[in-house]
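thought: fold this chain, then report.
action: predict
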Amino acid sequence: MNKKYISLVVIFVLIFTACDGNMKAQTSPVSNLATASPTHIPVDLNARAVLTSVGDVILHQSVIDGGKLANGKYNYDYIFKYAAPIFKASDYTIANYEGTLNGSPYSGYPMFGAPDAIATALKNAGVDMVTTANNHAFDRGVSGLQRTPTVFIKNGIKVIGTRSKTTDPKFQIVNVNGIKIGFTGYTFETIGTPTGKALNGMPLPSSAFGLVDSFNPSRESTFQNNMKQMAARIKAMKKAKAECIVFELHWGQEYQTVSDATEKRLAKFLSDNGVDVIFGHHPHVLQEISVIHSSVSGKNTLVYYSLGNVLANMLYNTHGTNGYAEDAAIARVEIARDGKGKISIVSGRYIKTYCYKDNSTGKTKHSIVPVKAALKNPSGFGMKNQTSLLTASSQRISKVLSKSGGMKNGILIREY
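observation:
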């Protein structure tokens, strides 16, 4: 019995040793990684994310009326028919919603209040987040200021810039393809008083001060404090583990196709404080795209000074704009993390768009048309006999962005 017992032990040891030898011979570092516990899989140091942003989404009265159905309800999905594939091809899409959602009666300029259906349409089109901080955020008073973000949130869209309660988040951190991106939004104030805020010339009650993120470029001491608050916000976002910081800014001079001194000053300050990307809006026309290199932060900050009106009823001659208020750009930014864990902006591209107004049905139906694609196939974008409009739009956009192309401080800027 002892011999048999010893023999069995020897056989067992031989088998175990042989199996262990085979495992070592067949196992490679790759298979080790593939079969390892998920807790041992390293973070993807080569992550990439595509971020898309658009400028002003404004529902003038004709835009509101164009979505009214026979049953009295509203639907605006048709507006985004051609833009939706672009939004959905991106990893994350942001829009500036300019106005309020406070229920009926609905109205366009000058006191914007649209049906909730626009929030549904933006969600259906692939928009993930809106900034609601702009000069029309207070058009329906405190109730409109508070209800607007609530409607978007109910539709599954994140909100920055305004909030229904002062305790709601002042920024958002979103994991986009493994990269943690921090988003926040601000709007300019009109002059107000030394102690009071105003939007579009309308004084805000003190109870609303904490409901909208804003800055006052007309009062230097206030502006200085505002910038300090922005710097504190950036630090808070970084503390919350944001790897990339994105600011949405409602700023600049209306109908001016070149950025002004305040825009440049604020952009430089934000770059010095570590902001990676700035998307601007409010001028209602396109402005240049630039890259700021900060010797303070070491950052290369990509700035779209104004993305224009992606949706509005501004016509060719509105305010003497000669078509520029009908043009816009969809920003398409590629963000990357390299093998050492460093985040950088790889490219800042843009897609030219034209806001087409179809009057053939008896009421105006607006649509966002990608210019380059529509010029190749006008009928596929509902513009078979309107190629001259597209050509003129393309030329206007090229004129505004003529000095914006090429490689700037390591970031590629060009049409997509």
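thought: worth noting. The chain is about 30% helix and 25% strand.
final: tokens above.
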